[in-house]
Design goal:
single chain; alpha/beta; 5-stranded parallel sheet; 54% helix
């Protein structure tokens, strides 16, 4: 039986598996690698806890389907998804389906380690209090109309220049609004911003 703090790396790329296994083991985290979601699901009766780090795009069972199958089987392990920039909308959808965080490639080693520590701590601490969700909703409501439009664009995975084209403003202006959104939402990264927005329960939808 694996220990409860094992980090399971699920990725079809052997170089990624080896790199992450080295990083996590060097940081003192027990790690087990899986070359596919199918492999993890086939052997998951051996696992009693910890968390999962997986790519959103994989052959066979992809990240979104993997999340669905985990939930269908009652697996409550926190899942962190890795994504390329073009896959940000998929990562947002993954978070809607239960992933606790996503990391956009390339990411710093410390960003992954921090996300894993947070996921493991959240698993121990249980659900965040309802009062915090109310506080976050108030942050969303404090955004100006234009800031909300930029936020909606970010949630849709749009690049600054695309948001600028859709809103008929300059990319530099989008950068300013984006910075304002991050400050008002008290977000430290794009994934943190997405997580906060989803937690708030606000019905934001990007409309070009």
């Amino acid at each position: 039986m694996m220990t409860s703090e094992v980090v399971h790396v699920v990725d079809d790329d052997i170089a990624v598996r080896q790199s992450l296994a080295f990083l996590l083991s060097t940081d003192g985290l027990p790690v087990r690698v899986h070359d596919s979601a199918e492999s993890f699901l086939m052997n998951m009766t051996e696992f009693s806890g910890g968390c999962i780090v997986t790519d959103v795009r994989m052959p066979g069972i992809d990240g979104l389907d993997f999340l669905a199958r985990l939930r269908d089987r009652g697996v409550d392990m926190p899942v962190i998804v890795m994504t390329g920039h073009a896959d940000v909308p998929l990562a947002v959808e993954a978070m809607k389906r239960g992933a606790v965080d996503f990391l956009e490639k390339p990411f710093e080693d410390e960003a992954l380690l921090s996300a894993i520590r947070t996921a493991l701590d959240r698993r121990k601490g249980g659900m965040e209090p309802k009062a915090q969700s109310v506080d976050i909703r108030e942050r969303v409501e404090a955004l100006s109309e234009r800031e909300r439009q930029v936020l909606e664009g970010l949630l849709a995975g749009k690049a600054n220049k695309v948001i600028a084209f859709d809103l008929e403003i300059s990319p530099r202006t989008v950068e300013i609004y984006r910075a304002n959104v991050m400050t008002k939402m008290q977000a430290t990264s794009l994934s943190h911003l997405v997580r906060l927005t989803l937690q708030s329960g606000s019905a934001l939808k990007y409309k070009p």
